[in-house]
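Hello, quick one for you while I still have it in my head. A protein chain has come my way and I'm curious about its shape. Can you walk me through what the tokens say about the fold? No rush at all, and the record is pasted right below.
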Amino acid sequence: MPAKSAAQQKAAGAALAAKRGDAPKSKLKGASKQMESSMTEKQLEDFAHTTRKGKPDHVKR
């Protein structure tokens, strides 16, 4: 499932780095903190590897 916005893709990248141990979990906040705890590494990879080209910065709910 690809990310729908650049913000979602960036948050997934931060969460993926924390899940892999490349970044401290204590630095996560907001959506990336929730994503790290609720998604698998594979799901985060799918979101994080989405290209940002043509994506809006944010998507309204």
